[in-house]
Specification:
This protein has 203 residues and is mainly α. It has a domain of 77 residues. The protein contains 8 helices and no strands. It is globular, with a radius of gyration of 22 Å. InterPro entries: AA_transpt_TM. It is found in: Membrane. This is Amino acid transporter transmembrane domain-containing protein.
């Protein structure tokens, strides 16, 4: 979004972010609540789409199953592009820094195809990574829940013992504790169930 001193983009961008997250919540929470209400603890590890095929493949038309799968594919493709944007930006910035000229459109497209191919290769070569998702998520959780709070305190330097200082420290410590609990819980689960390592054999 274009920005200038007279018309800064941070205000409309912040409004857009809030509206986008409300829309995301309105889409995801009903699916999560309805899925748990319908299937409870019988939900398969791969999620609600697998449950739809497992429990309703005989009484739901193939058209409905196909549309549900298509919507999941569209969701994955679009969110992949959003979450991979920092990697694309780093690749383009490296090219601009090295060549001292703008990155052409065909090379930007090539970066995206290359990164997607590398991700696909990793997914096929290491199909057991999904079993480590909880552990990896627990390890990386402080980046989202804890570090921003500690960084805010370090940058803004609010008065020690003030309300904002206490809130940020409490949220940061809570994020670290939650991360620790998730890591321990996932390690416990891996030890109890075991990890089946199989390369280039997706199931």
């Amino acid at each position: 979004m274009p920005s200038s001193l007279k018309h800064p983009s941070d205000v409309p961008m912040w409004k857009g972010v809030k509206v986008a997250y409300v829309i995301v919540a309105l889409c995801l929470y009903p699916v999560a609540i309805g899925g748990f209400w319908a299937y409870g603890n019988q939900i398969p590890p791969n999620g609600i789409l697998t449950a739809l095929y497992k429990f309703h493949s005989h009484d739901v038309s193939r058209l409905v199953l196909g549309i549900a799968t298509l919507l999941v594919i569209i969701n994955c493709l679009t969110t992949y592009q959003i979450y991979a944007m920092p990697v694309y930006d780093n690749m383009e910035a490296g090219y601009v820094h090295k060549k001292d000229r703008p990155c052409p459109w065909w090379l930007r497209s090539g970066f995206r195809v290359f990164f997607g191919a590398v991700n696909f290769l990793i997914a096929v070569a290491l199909p057991f990574l999904s079993e480590l998702a909880g552990l990896l998520g627990g390890i990386s959780l402080p980046v989202t829940l804890a570090y921003p709070c500690f960084m805010w305190v370090a940058i803004k330097k609010p008065g020690k013992g003030s309300a904002m200082w206490n809130i940020n420290w409490a949220l940061g410590v809570f994020g670290m504790v939650l991360s620790f609990v998730l890591v321990v819980g996932n390690l416990w689960g891996l030890v109890a169930k075991g990890l089946q390592v199989h390369f280039f054999k997706p199931q």
